[in-house]
Amino acid sequence: MDYVTGLRCRECARTYPAEALHVCDFCFGPLEVDYDYERVTADLTRERIAAGPQTIWRYAPLLPVDDPAPIDLGTGFTPLVRAERLGAELGLHDLWLKNDTANPTGSFKDRVVSVALTKARQLGFKVAACASTGNLANSVAAHAARAGMVSVVFIPSDLETAKIVTTAVYGGHVVAVDGTYDDVNRLCAELTSEHPSWAFVNVNIRTYYAEGSKTLAFEVAEQLGWQAPDHVIVPVASGSQLTKIRKGFGELYRVGLLDEEPHVRVSGAQAAGCAPVADAFAAGADAIRPVKPSTIAKSLAIGNPADGWYALDAVRRSGGAFASVTDDEIIDGIRLLARTEGIFAETAGGVTIASLAKLAAQGVVRPEEKVVAYITGHGLKTVEALAGVVGPTATIAPTLQAFDATVDVDATLDRRA
Ligand SMILES: *Cc1c(COP(=O)(O)O)cnc(C)c1O
Ligand SMILES: [Zn+2]
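^ thats the input. predicted complex w/ pyridoxal-5'-phosphate below
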């Protein structure tokens, strides 16, 4: 039996049953999952979690679906690594990286999709659909294949080749739409009305989907020895992930898994070519003005973010900030992370690291804070961003002479010493 008591409107607090609903009939506010936190508190102990699977499903009582055999490719419990070299470059003494490139399809989207499709299957859906900037399509196609569901995913036609190939290989329907993500999303909203029997993971079952991102907070707290960090840096597209990370830390305290009330500062990272939320923050505005995206960070290229206002509000309330970074800074961020920590992130990871660098230089992220930066997608998905930027140190004839004349490893060693 699960711990869900129903859905509740974020705006007017009207309640609804836990069905495929996502907006309030009265005020059009988004719906949130409600839990019986007293029962969760009684049942969910640190010991029980430790004895659970090494996946997001170890936190099942705080997820919106109970299924002894969830649709799971092994998502979650990704490494949380101490980043001493990167920290030294940025002047941060207690920096950690949550490496979500290690998820089954190479991005954090496996968390939300595993939850959404398990719930969709329970509700009787046989078709899994989504509007995607790439990583979501990838994950929906893979999880649908695993579950024997039919997938229909919609993507902007200008996505990176790797993201299209790693989605299409699972054999579902991949529909490339000539338009931006916001055009794709509008089309999918229309299709949701036309095909009520399809589970659009980020439309009609978005309420459940979004909950999967809370595991990014749960894991970090558990991996830090049941302690919340002081500050987290989160990349922002729709804004859903950021709001749910904040919710996740709060829930852990609410159910007694954290001893002290967490005060996690939450900061958001966007690409300058698509920064509607960061721009609103910088302007001190309340309204998010939609933009037409133009950035190499395609996974974050949502010009009209569904949870933008909630992300802005969460950052302000937590005492965090936003940064936005140019395409060149994104490339530098990818290379800095790879060079110092051996982690190859996609462009969204470049946005996170470059934003972290900016916020650290501004003193917003403070040297003594325990900081966690979320690295949400794998670099192999966006290799074209680095085309012409990195390559062989030298191309030589197969002779000792040619090597000696061209490459000086000792000089590199000396520079390090
Ligand atoms: C989707 C995505 C995000 C942002 O998620 P939102 O919840 O839409 O803000 C961040 N990083 C990567 C790699 C993504 O694919
Ligand atoms: Zn309402």
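The pocket of pyridoxal-5'-phosphate (ligand 1) is lined by residues 107-109, 135, 235-241, 299-300, 346, 348, 376-377 (CB under 6 Å).
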